[in-house]
Structures are given as C-alpha cells and as structure tokens.
Amino acid sequence: MINQKIDKLFNFKEKIIIVTGSSGQIGSSFCKLFLDMGAIVYGFDKGSSRLKHKNYTYRKVDITKKKIVEKNINLLIKNHQKIDVIINNAGFSVFTKFYERTNRELDKTINVNIKGTLNIINSYVKVHKEKKLKKCNIINIGSIYGIISPDFRIYEKNGNYNSEIYGATKASIIQLTKYYSVILSPLNINVNCLSPGGLYNHQKPQKRSFIKKYSLRVPKARMANSEDLYTGILFLASSNSSYVSGQNIVIDGGLSSW
Length: 258
Prior knowledge:
Helix content is 40%, strand content 15%. The protein is α/β, with parallel strands linked by helices. The model has no long low-confidence stretch (mean pLDDT 94).
C-alpha cells in the first residue's frame, strides 16, 4: 500500500517534459531520469544529441530566438495538447578575467541565461492562455553562485574563474522565479528554482587540485554528481509540489551554509 502511494506521488508516465540544454551534463542526466520514469521527453539544444530512446525527441532550438521557441512549443502543444513540465536548464558562462570582459561575452551570457529563459516561459504562457491549458510545472536551474560569491582562493592563478556575469544572470533567474510564481499562480502554472553546487564534470574532469580545494569548502566534503539533483528535480516536477511556489531549492552539500 505504501509503495503504491509512493509510486503515485512520482508518476511521470506519459508526462510531456521539455528540458533545455539537453545535451549537457545536467540536461542529459535529467532527460535519462525522466525517460526512466516513463515520461515523454523533448530536448532543446543547439548542439547534437547522442541520447536514443523511443520516448525522446531532440530538437535543435536556439532559445535566444523567440520565433523558433514559439514554433517548437506550439508544435508540442498541437501534438500533445499539453506540456506538463518545463526545465529551463540551458546555461552559458565565460571564464576570462572580469576586467577584460567583452560586450560580446556579456551579451551571450545574458542572452542564453536570461533571455532564453524568458523566451521559453513567455512563449509557453501565451499558448497556455490561448488554449486554456490546465497546469504546468516550470523549473528554472539556478546556481549557488546566484546567492553567494565563489571563493577565489580555490582557483589556480590562471584557472577558470567563475565569472561575475554568470553569477549575476543566475541571481536574475532566482528573482524571475519569484516574479513568475506570483503572476502565473492564477493560471495553475507552478514556478520554482533548483540551484546546484559545483558539479564534478565527468566529460572533462576538473583538475585534482581544484576538486580537493573545492571539497574542503563543502561540509559534505565532495563535489556534486548529477544524481544528487534527482530528488529535488523529481519533487519540483511532480504534482506533489503544487503548494511549493517561488522557491529556490539549493543542493550544494551545505556549501552555502558556511
């Protein structure tokens, strides 16, 4: 009986889910997670996709282009009459020295992280209202660097510093989450944010010296893995988070608690 109730709590069978930035480490991991849970997943990204699954569809979508976003979201609604979950995961950062920051770097980071998120949400809300859709859970992916500053002592002299503009855009994502959670509640659209700590990069591992220094800053004494985000993303995507609104759930091993 208890197992049946738990299964019902996290039932994603045939749920329609969009994941932006679907080809990256976090995005591809989320896609696989929801596919394993029985969902129908659409990945939006500019790059290529290696993920193959009968319930997975990859669409080459530049989220900074509003007309392209609108076209793809309208197509999904036409095919399925709904979108149950939208995960705004696509992100971009630069690693040059902040005092050498170019306008091109600023523009690209802002366009992907903020403008892209706005394009996805606004395009969906427009069709949600037109078609009088019932509900949707929107989850924005933030970062601990939207709420705290990096500890620059853990970086090497010529290392890839986490940039000021990345942190600023992620702070914006957290605020946009609060704004949309208020204005979209009457439409039964739930909006929350999930902010991960530093993730170990399985594709291009960070230097051992950095991993060691970073881990010393974390009460859990390690970097995060994509799997550490699963409980949070499953909860926010489920119907059981219907009374959780405008929140930023931080999963960082306790780093931001210092």
